[in-house]
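Now for one record:
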Amino acid sequence: MHGIAYLHNASASGWNLSHFEVDAHGRLFRGDQRGGLVDELRRLLDTDPTTADDARRVADDLLNAAPRPSKPLLSVAAEEVRKREQFVLVDEQKVAYTLVEHAVDLAHRQNTKTAVIVLGGPGSGKSVLALSLLGDLSRKGREVMHATGSSAFTQTLRKIVVGSRSTRSQKVFQYFNSFIGLEPNTLDVVICDEAHRIRETSVNRFTKAAARARARPQVDELIAIARVPVFLLDEHQVVRPGEMGTEAEITAAAERAGCRVEVVRLGGQYRCGGSEFYEQWVRRLLGLDPRPPIRWSELVAADPDESYSVAALPSPAALEGWLLGRSSGTADTARLAAGYCWRWSDPVTGDDGARRLVDDVVIGGWSRPWNAKPEKAVRDAPPSHFWASDSRGFGQVGCIYTAQGFEYDWSGVVMGPDLVRRNGVWVADRTSSYDGPVKKAGDDEFPALVRNTYKVLLTRGMKGTAVFSTDPETQQFLEDMCR
């Protein structure tokens, strides 16, 4: 058995790796030592002269293999929860996992409470960590629940992980507002996935009067319900007014409750083809990074192995064709999403008595419907909860509330007139938005919410993303940045 590490981004300049010990079973090669790596592989594989050609072919296949994106979360979620054999936790994921394990053990030995906050960008492995914790802790007999603020994400997890099993099993997946008035420390662990969607209060128009009287701030309820509340969040995914899931808010609430607080920052990238370049490029593009926007080709120039596809296309029809060209005849998934800049109509009933979706998203001579509303069933279209995971979702346009939390192989994004580029800066226009709650946000909050919305939409694709803007000046900027 031999171990070889190939650090393809490292070079002699700026990288001091000489202190790493090397022995007969382990070697480390930098990107500028590729020839040495080839020689070492051939030496190890050419052990039998009669199979030398096969060994060389295997070595060449390894060196020329394209980087592969990680397993799509939803396609293996059920097995991960039941058996914990689909994902291998790495680096900071292991740190967070171990912190939770130790906090649960400590809570039972010493009657303590610990809040664990896990911060990470899109595709950094937060939901993988959540499902791994859920499965392992459940099998160890701990009382644990998974909670989110997203109806689409929770309903999809119930469908895929639990399937047709009992309603009791489905109750493992709950919402942030499910814990009003419950006794403190009812659970060992509550795993709050997408915790940036925590709201000021759990009360809504459906909350009964008796429950309203017992309601507290939502973050306080989540901390109270479990001995170890775990919060997984990305502060750049706050997309609605009243969403309060930030490290500062959660830390302050935990300390008020007498909770120890542990914070872990995930640094990996397991969506977007594993490309940390792409997530950085999106943040710089939208002004969420202090550094200026940069052309995609310039950002990845130093990495010959970068395989993520980025494009700016001239029309929504071109976006749709791009998605079809990459997904047709394959197992790949593709979806088209847009900013909330068009009315979302109820379905209409045709002469045959069947409901059909209305083509609300109209751009020139091109038009498509939004995804179906959850309470308005339409034949041949999935409910909005399953737009991202049901193959019938292609052909409808998804919005932030159906795309957030999900992933697909190929992503198309239409940027509407609610965010346009003017004189080198982004300008947000609330008059172009059809998102009622967001339109009511303050002058400082509205631009941040819109930029976060597009940040979410632009980071759903695992293999590639194409974008189009309805605004000519913005489209010209995007075409320049996608070069």
